[in-house]
Amino acid sequence: MLRGRAAHELVEGLEVRHVGAFTECPFEELEAPTRVHVDPYGNVHICQGILAGNVWDSSLAQVVQGYDPHEHPVLGPLIERGPAGLANVTGMGTGSHFASECHACYEIRRALREAPEYRGVLGPNQVYGEEPEPPPTSYR
């Protein structure tokens, strides 16, 4: 199974299916995660590149207590219908074919990063194969 940028970079030659076939996220507990990732920028990731908050803006306890995946613009559709739901709600990737759930989700999220309403919930740049963000000048 390919995740993240690996799904983007190594998909050539793999069998692909229409995005509508991917109706769940079988790899993460999005509604009640048992773990999170915190990156050097303070971002709290539910899955790599999907952000729930930032520990420099709020404590980790506050981020966890305020976590409402159904209100999150990316997680809500993923919980309801997986990458197919995210494609349907956002209009991104609806006619596309992908090798896996992760591949579909990643490619749709890469496209969504251009929209202002997804800034702050998708990042950082490195996860999406983009120019790295400058390192923090100080830690709060």
**Given the structure, what is the number of helices?**
4
Number of strands: 5
Helix and strand string, N-terminal first?
HEEEEHHEH
Taking all Cα atoms into account, the compactness measure Rg is 15 Å
State the shape: globular
Described by strand count, sense and barrel closure, the largest sheet is: 3 strands, antiparallel
Across the major sheet, the strand order is 2-3-4
The portion of residues assigned to helices is 25-40%
| Termini separation | 37 Å
Tell me the strand percentage band: 5-15%
Write the layout of secondary structure elements.
Elements: H1 4-9, E1 17-18, E2 37-38, E3 43-47, E4 50-54, H2 60-65, H3 75-90, E5 97-98, H4 101-112
Antiparallel strand pairs: 1-5, 2-3, 3-4
Helix pairs in contact: 3-4
Tell me what you see in this structure.
The protein has four helices and five strands. The longest helix is centred in the middle third of the chain and has 16 residues, at 75-90. It has helices spanning 4-9, 60-65, 75-90, 101-112, and strands at residues 17-18, 37-38, 43-47, 50-54, 97-98. Helix 3 (75-90) crosses helix 4 (101-112). The model has no long low-confidence stretch (mean pLDDT 91). The strands form two sheets. Strands 2-3-4 form a three-stranded antiparallel sheet. Strands 1-5 form a two-stranded antiparallel sheet. 29% of the residues lie in helices and 11% in strands. It is globular, with a radius of gyration of 15 Å. The chain has one domain (4-126). The chain starts with a helix and ends in a 28-residue tail after the last helix. It is of the alpha+beta class and 140 residues long.
